[in-house]
Amino acid sequence: MLTRRQILISALTSLAGGTLLKKAQAASQKNEKHTHTKPSSKDQGRAHYTPVATPNGNTLPYKMKNGVKEFHLIAEPVEREFGPGMTVKCWGYNGQTPGPTIEAVEGDRLRILVTNRLPEHTTIHWHGIFLPNGMDGVGGLNQPHIKPGETYVYEFTLRQHGTFKYHPHADEMVQLAVGMMGMFVVHPKRPETPEIDRDFAIMLHTWAIHPGTYRPDPAIMLDFNIFSFNSKVFPAVDHLVVKTGDRVRIRIANLSMDEHPIHIHGHAFRVTATDGGQIPAAGQWPETTVLVPVGATRDVEFIADAPGDWAFHCHKSHHTMNAMGHDVPNTLGVNQEGLEAKIQAMLPGYMAMGEKGMAEHADHVDHMDGPKNTLPMMMGKGPFGNIEMGGMFTVVKVRDRLHSYDTDPGWYKHPPGTVAHRLV
Predict the structure, then answer these.
(1) Could you tell me the pTM of the whole model?
(2) If DSSP states are collapsed to H, E and C, what string results for the chain?
(3) Is a pLDDT exceeding 60 seen at residue 28?
């Protein structure tokens, strides 16, 4: 039996977690107008590898100085729009979170300058990369902390290839929780066989951003409410656009506090590498879901041989929702007849909901406002109606005729007779 307290909690939650600023609804209807993910280099045709495309992100530029590739990372407070109607006060690198992808080639000599514009000290750890001990970035163990206003230099030669990460090893609980992380991709020195046509990099993260607030809460250990691909949530995550027949690699990194089973529709992939190195072909097997543990990377590869719009998402169902709250009473199957008017006397605007499921939340965004800077539980419209997703969700768009990767092709046009239809 629901108590008076539980009913009031449900009422407040209905006004908050299940609604959206109308601004967000208008923007969510523009799914086909994403800023499309482009390869990182203008020299793609001349390189012996396919440059990485970081959805909703970019690659860090460098300068050649006496045979050394010199990069510059700036640790600083940043603001990140997770989705239309929600901007978060984070910490990151070079104006963004995750920081720009570092991209280099096995055998390169790197010099990475790190400037600290944070209010406290920091360091950078090059996660998974083999380098001299004094370059490993653990504050107090391998180096002094980088104090506010200081610039440190890291210099080492890349002795391996694969998918890696960078992040602080100073006040790690806080600095990771507020977004300080980035991808580090090292291409092999010799051309890969078979060649990769599209190469994507996605960082997974979980956030605790309480309704109506703007700053992640680093004290939360388990009860996260926002789940992101490259610090974006659906429908703001870039679509992954590929041509039919392309060999596609997706590099997935996880610096969150939870593991994530990442699932693709319409295809099967092989897990080809971890941050420990390449997996021999004999050790690979087909999967449609790859579990990405905390602090790890997984590379998956597949042939895009099925045209269409295919979902790509975490398979923990709460991770494809936004503003998830876990203290809400369960009203599924509860007869709320007559209850709405009584609660409206105390909370004007209350709507009884949840008796028949939660899908109705996706319709409420058309006529209900919610708390400031808070996304609804489910969002997004497709060609057939509400997609009812959020968080770690995007779409792999496979097309037979694609003139450019730089433009989203819109929704898939299904051949006649290939769409499920109503019978009765």
Answers:
(1) 0.88
(2) CCCHHHHHHHHHHHHHCCCCCHHHHHHHCCHHHCCCCCCCCCCCCCCCCCCCECCCCCECCCEEECCEEEEEEEEEEEEEEEECCEEEEEEEECCECCEEEEEEECCCEEEEEEEECCCCCECCEEECCCCCHHHCCCECCCECCECCCCEEEEEEECCCCEEEEEECCCCHHHHHHCCCCEEEEEECCCCCCCCCCEEEEEEEEEECCCCCCCCCCCCCCCCCCEEEECCECCCCCCCEEEECCCEEEEEEEECCCCCEEEEECCCCEEEEEECCEECCHHHCCEECEEEECCCEEEEEEEECCCCEEEEEEECCHHHHCCCCCCCCCCCCCCCCCCHHHHHHCCCCCCCCCCCCCCCCHHHHCCCCCCCCCCCCCCEEEECCEEEEECCCEEEEEEECCCCCCCCCCCCCCCCCCCCCCCCC
(3) no
Q: What is the pLDDT of residues 129-157, one digit of tens each?
A: 999 999 999 999 999 999 999 999 999 99
What is the structure's pLDDT at 7?
A: 41
Question: 239 and 84 in contact (C-beta within 8 Å)?
Answer: no
pLDDT interval class at 366 (50, 70, 90): low
Rounded distance, CA 134 to CA 141, Å? Answer: 9
Stated length of the chain: 424
Phi and psi at residue 250, in whole multiples of 5°? Answer: -120, 120
Please give the torsion angle defined by the CA atoms of residues 417, 418, 422 and 424, in that order, rounded to the nearest 10 degrees.
Answer: 60
